[in-house]
Design goal:
CATH topology of the largest domain: Rossmann fold
Bound molecules: adenosine-5'-tetraphosphate
Number of strands: 5
Distance between the termini: 36 Å
CATH superfamily of the largest domain: HUPs
CATH architecture of the largest domain: 3-Layer(aba) Sandwich
Number of domains: 2
Order of helices and strands: EHEHHEHHHHEHEHHHHH
Strand order of the largest sheet: 1-2-3
Shape: globular
Strand content: 5-15%
Number of helices: 13
Helix content: 40-55%
Length: about 325
């Protein structure tokens, strides 16, 4: 059977939320068993908004440790830091020449982030989807586990792959998104129609993977619900539905089972149960991440090996792209 490849990444742009975990990292784990997986810390993406350099370095290592603590297995998977593989930026430059300014300006994330960082609407911010396409296409990826917010970028990636293949001949595999519907958009606890985001200005809107137990319980207690006091999953009840979705993921049950287990209960009971379930699940991950961060040399050597592995595959794609577009090889 033909080997299938999975690529995914998260930016070290802040402490991760349970949204990043549920929409992305958690879905990677079963894929490691039957696919060739590349999981990266997307540091080049994160500098499209201003970062503190020392903090960015620490967050990069800390995110790699978190991947491992969540269950990414370095024996089965290639785990590396994006900037350690220069082919990402090199392919991005080549793809920039077939990407149109108009299509990048239409991207929702570009519009949102331009508003949020009005004093720093830089070229990198606009180019984010092209770099993301390069990440994915370098590895001839079949599947990309992402949350709903990234589906538009994945469509651009597919368009660029098809456009390049049409213009220069078959070069890239055209990837598909791997999305689990009920987990694709975990929402803010305070504005439950908005996605939970690691860069939300209000820390009470998000549960961070590093939050201690008492903070998790408190944040869930304050979560916005509604006044109808029945626990069911429904579009017109975004707050309650969000809590049920979070509960079902961490409990390992379906949403229908979650609804059933809260039959006749009030919102207070639901909020406490979700808080306790999430805190219980995060505790061992937090402990393991801290343990790994105490082994800095081990982490750095693992990332070095990961980057070497990644480069082997990335280089092949880049050479083929350079040949197709007519760059003279030295
Ligand atoms: N709320 C969410 N629900 C489900 N999935 C989510 N993802 C993010 N938020 C949610 C998924 O997490 C992966 C990594 O995201 P990223 O770090 O590359 O950037 P992002 O999508 O922009 O996530 P954030 O948390 O909102 O980061 P900031 O605040 O820095 O922009 C992606 O697969 C994403 O879909």
């Amino acid at each position: 059977m033909e080997e299938k490849t999975v690529y995914s990444a998260v930016q070290p742009s802040g402490d991760l939320t349970i949204g990043n975990y549920i929409g992305s990292i958690r879905n990677w784990l079963p894929l490691q068993e039957s696919y060739t997986c590349y999981f990266a810390v997307a540091d080049l993406h994160s500098i499209t908004v201003r970062q503190d350099p020392a903090l960015l370095r620490e967050r990069t290592l800390s995110l790699a440790a978190l991947y491992l603590a969540c269950g990414v297995d370095p024996e089965k998977t290639t785990l590396y830091v994006q900037s350690h593989v220069p082919e990402h930026a090199q392919l991005c430059w080549a793809l920039n020449t077939i990407a149109y300014v108009g299509e990048m300006e239409r991207m929702t994330q570009f519009k949102d982030k331009s508003q949020k960082h009005a004093d720093n609407i830089n070229m990198g911010l606009m180019d984010y989807p092209v770099l993301m396409a390069s990440d994915i296409l370098l590895y001839q990826t079949d599947l990309v586990p992402v949350g709903q917010d990234q589906t538009q970028h994945l469509e651009i990636c597919r368009d660029l792959a098809i456009r390049f293949n049409n213009r220069y001949g078959e070069t890239f595999r055209v990837p598909k998104a791997h999305i689990i519907k009920e987990r694709a958009k975990i929402c803010s606890l305070l504005e439950p129609t908005k996605k939970m985001s690691k860069s939300d200005e209000n820390p009470n809107a998000s549960i961070f993977l590093t939050d201690p137990r008492d903070v998790i319980l408190k944040k869930f207690k304050r979560a916005v619900t509604d006044s109808d006091n029945t626990i069911r999953y429904a579009e017109e009840k975004p707050g309650v539905s969000n809590l049920l979705a979070i509960y079902s993921v961490f409990r390992g049950c379906t949403i229908a089972e979650a609804e059933k287990s809260f039959e006749g209960c009030g919102y207070g009971t639901l909020k406490t149960a979700v808080g306790e379930t999430v805190a219980d699940a995060l505790e061992p991950i937090q402990r393991e991440q801290q343990r790994l961060l105490g082994e800095r040399e081990y982490l750095l050597s693992l990332l070095k090996k990961g980057a070497e592995n990644a480069r082997e595959r990335a280089e092949k794609t880049l050479i083929s792209v350079y040949e197709k577009i007519g760059l003279l090889r030295g």
